[in-house]
Amino acid sequence: MRPANFVWYDVMTPDMKGAEAFYTNVIGFSAKDSGMPGPMWTRYWDVDAGDAAVARAKSSGATLLNGPMQVPGGIGIANLADPQGAMFNVLSLVR
């Protein structure tokens, strides 16, 4: 198993225009409204085998919130919460 990398971040905020202006100015961020509630950041870890990562997470005390499922482009994704309640996501990029 290779170490996972952060590959995708979402920011969820009630002030989409303000967040877009701030992050565009600071880091050149582009935004698309996902319709999700906020405020919060969501992180996605790229893993080799999504189902195996979900199984390891669950056996270590995580709660599966959604998935695993396949999204457009053939990417596998699952949303989980760690034992302390912090949400995180694993995804398997098309290689």
Describe the model.
With 95 residues, the chain is α+β, with helices and mostly antiparallel strands. The protein has a single domain, classed as 2,3-Dihydroxybiphenyl 1,2-Dioxygenase, domain 1. Helix content is 23%, strand content 39%. The protein has a five-stranded mixed beta sheet. Strand 4 and strand 5 form a beta hairpin. The longest helix has 12 residues. It is globular, with a radius of gyration of 15 Å. The model has no long low-confidence stretch (mean pLDDT 80).
Helix- and strand-based class? Answer: alpha+beta
Number of helices: 2
Secondary-structure element order, as H and E? EHEHEEE
Shape: globular
What does the average pLDDT come to?
Answer: 80
By CATH, the superfamily comes out as 2,3-Dihydroxybiphenyl 1,2-Dioxygenase, domain 1
Biggest β-sheet: strands ordered side by side in the sheet: 1-2-5-4-3
Summarize the main sheet. 5 strands, mixed
Helix and strand layout, with pairings?
Elements lengths: L4 E8 L3 H12 L12 E7 L3 H10 L3 E9 L3 E7 L5 E6 L3
Parallel strand pairs: 2-5
Antiparallel strand pairs: 1-2, 3-4, 4-5
Labels describing this entry:
95 residues; 2,3-Dihydroxybiphenyl 1,2-Dioxygenase, domain 1; single chain; alpha+beta
Task: Give a summary of the structure in a few sentences.
This protein has one domain: 2,3-Dihydroxybiphenyl 1,2-Dioxygenase, domain 1 (Roll), CATH 3.10.180. 23% of the residues lie in helices and 39% in strands. It contains 2 helices and 5 strands, in the order βαβαβββ.
